[in-house]
Write a structure and sequence with these properties.
Radius of gyration: 20 Å
Shape: globular
Structural class: alpha/beta
Distance between the termini: 37 Å
Helix content: 40-55%
Number of strands: 7
Strand order of the largest sheet: 1-2-3-4-5-6-7
Number of helices: 18
Order of helices and strands: HEHHEHEHHEHEHHEHEHHHHHHHH
Strand content: 5-15%
Largest sheet: 7 strands, parallel
Length: 328
């Protein structure tokens, strides 16, 4: 939430053509009552893209899923993993793991309303309900809805005592638990989530599960996705973009959005990590952060930030030997 908005997703799509992108979690009620174009609008270049819903009322979820399908989303996902206080008070997110029958009803209603795939995202446990047997029952009950794809954050959630940020870091990861689910439910697809920071790590996990979801690392160091099409999706014909190529294409998008009145800062906040680990990355972040403050700021701010970077950082492509100035 508040991270993978449409600007972020367009940017990430410039790095990887094949990776499935997810929206922020949007509540079913917001979709039914709010500005749907603002909440659900996206660029066609983002495909494949999944809409992630929050909610617990089967009828509302079904209606929101149908609207998402009409907008053209490739998948509708129900979030049963978010631990924030706002989520708990609305009876959705991780607290739904304590009500698997309700989740089953919601997903069944969503599946009946749409033709696109319906999936679910959840944790491996909640509070003291963290035994493997409880998790196994959750998957078995939810599977009765007809949903066959489970994205599993390999941490339990503490609904009291930990902030959402702490819930992404403090509960220990248990990758073997997700692998065990795959072994016990071979008919289902399991996507592992939590703490995966490199494509090499993702490839290792794919020996035991069907997919890997990368969140924070893809946002903080987005260029790690540059080789995803080739290494993960086995697309040998896929060209690995340089960071200069990515930004030049993004600048075209930025200009089009500025012409519509979108503030620069709403877009550049998503590209701050593109050069993390490269020389003068701090200058890149500083120029973008300071320069985008003004409402009138435009693509010239990005140009200035690019000028602060060495050509070796701009033109090096993932998978190539590191230039001496980058490896030093």
């Amino acid at each position: 939430m508040d991270w993978t908005d449409r600007h972020c997703r367009f940017f990430l799509r410039l790095i990887s053509a094949r990776t499935l992108l997810y929206t922020e979690m949007i509540t079913a009620q917001a979709i039914l009552r709010g500005d749907r174009q603002k909440l659900l609008g996206y660029d066609q270049a983002e495909h494949p893209v999944a809409l992630q819903l929050g909610g617990s009322d089967p009828a509302l979820l079904a209606e929101a899923a149908k609207i998402g399908e009409e907008f053209g989303y490739d998948e509708i996902n129900l979030n049963c993993g978010c631990p924030s206080d706002r989520v708990q008070s609305g009876r959705f997110g991780a607290c739904l793991m304590l009500e698997p029958e309700l989740v089953r009803e919601g997903l069944a209603a969503m599946r009946a309303a749409v033709k696109v795939p319906v999936t679910v995202k959840h944790r491996i446990g909640v509070d003291e309900v963290d035994s493997y047997e409880a998790l196994q029952r959750f998957v078995a009950v939810v599977g009765e809805s007809g949903v066959t794809s489970f994205s599993v954050h390999a941490r339990k959630a503490w609904l009291s005592g930990l902030s959402p940020k702490e819930n992404r870091e403090i509960p220990p990861l248990s990758y073997p638990t997700v692998a065990r689910l795959k072994a016990d439910f071979p008919e289902y697809e399991f996507i592992l989530n939590g703490g995966v920071r490199t494509l090499d790590a993702a490839a290792e996990h794919l020996k035991a599960v069907d997919g890997v979801m990368i969140g924070r690392a893809a946002y903080e160091t987005p260029y790690i996705l540059a080789e995803a099409d080739r290494l993960i999706f086995d697309d040998a014909s896929s060209a690995v973009p340089s960071r200069r190529e990515i930004i030049k294409k993004f600048m075209v998008y930025v200009q089009a959005e500025r012409d519509k009145g979108t503030y620069l800062r709403h877009m550049t906040r998503h590209i701050l990590g593109l050069f993390n680990g490269a020389p003068r990355a701090r200058s890149w972040r500083r120029i973008l952060t300071e320069g985008a403050v003004q409402d009138t700021a435009g693509v010239e701010v990005i140009e200035r930030a690019l000028d602060a970077l060495p050509a070796s950082a701009l033109d090096w492509r993932a998978g190539e030997p590191l230039p001496e100035r980058l490896s030093a």
